[in-house]
Design a protein that fits this description.
6-stranded mixed barrel, Pyrimidine Nucleoside Phosphorylase, Chain A, domain 2, Barwin-like endoglucanases, 4-stranded antiparallel β-sheet, globular, Transferase, Pyrimidine Nucleoside Phosphorylase, Chain A, domain 3, alpha/beta
Amino acid sequence: MNSQALKLRRIAIDTYHENVAYMHRECEVYRAEGFQALSKIRISTNGSKILAVLNVVDDDAIVTPAELGLSEQAFQQLNVCEDCAVSVDHAEYAASMDAVRRKINGERLMLNDFEAITKDIAESRYSKMEMAAFLVATGQNSLDRDEVYYLTRSMLETGQRLSWGELQVVDKHCIGGIPGNRTSMLVVPIVAAHGMLIPKTSSRAITSPAGTADTMEIFAEVNLSPEKLHDIVRKHRGCLAWGGTARLAPVDDMLISVERPLGIDSQGQMVASILSKKLAAGSTHLLIDIPVGPTAKVRHMRAALALRKLFEYVGDQLGIHLEVIITDGRQPVGRGIGPTLEARDVMQVLENDPNAPADLRQKSLALAGRIIEFDPDVRGGQGYAIARDILDSGRALAKMNAIIEGQGAHSADFRPGQYCYEVKADKTGMVTSIDNLKMAKIARIAGAPMDKKAGVDLLCKTGDTVSEGDVLYHVYAEFMSDFEFAKKLIEQENGYVIGKESEIKRYDAFI
């Protein structure tokens, strides 16, 4: 351990799930220890210690030669006062990187390998480059079903696990890939109003224009401590929260921070991510939604069945009752794509607004009905009718409002971004298909989900008849640069195909 202390300085930089330290190039400790930029260092003070990636600076305004700077993430994790004395040394080598290299070479890893990898990631021994290497090595079809189980179990063990003291704790999750598919925000209040416990913890968007947590944030606080999460769920039988602050499978959030910019979303990682988070949240019964369509994550029935078997195998190994349903993923669900527009759709359904998107309402009722049928007092086939009654009677809206108040209500504003671009039909005919991937990309380029008012508002769906010049959808952005980027993307391809009714591909063609 280097005996020369440096004064700690808080650097107001958000490094998002990565500990970063800043040291001046003229620092005596930097020179004496032979540190290099991007090397990993250990920082210690008063019994607290963290690992961080070193950045070297030449500007005294950032840190002086007598100081060590820490990013917001690292400063919060070290949890000491600014200006205190800290010692710096080389970090120990992350031995689990040997297993990552073996995986890169095509070897099969065992449970102890995944336990070592996830432990080192949780302790910030991996840089984002090393996490990227792990994600690429385990991406696509590189994990067999036992390896997916090992990874899920290892991720689960890195964080807290909530216990509700009830025999049945339910949840649902969609694998994603369908823009606007904000069914969880309707399922939770319906199921909670039925009396079942449904503590819904969600990730933020990885490759999509919005995740459930991003959209719920329009209405309420989603960064909840485990204590507050418990209080809300005990009182209201449900919640819609981000899983990150609750420290549920934290390695998943760290990996997502790398997956998001890389656009990686492999099936093995996806299964491990979903199941580790659900088990950490205390779920005993889980419904998985796998949409299938030509531009969905899953394109054909054979792939959906394989994924269902993988979910069922890992779920069975971990002792969770799991049911998988395969749904129509040919086009976006609802009208809005992006947090604010999706929140508007959700509230319209809850308020039984006649203008509410019918497809979002129907799919949410079907999913809620299946979950309600987990209730041993409900006969099979009765769930949908019960869910519909809860929604139509206003009890779902009342429950949602109670959850919003419990989590800490925000002043919801459904006005979209200030810049609006109308995308018009170039000919007369019928909308025969809408490209999920293209619509999601347009919404993201426009600024979603970081700019919550950005996104796409669909005016026409598959099967609608349009005339040349009719508006197909609006694109909204908060900043002119994003607005121009989105327009250029649309000029290349707008994501809509207009043709004849006979050209509409049947749902059963994909399943």
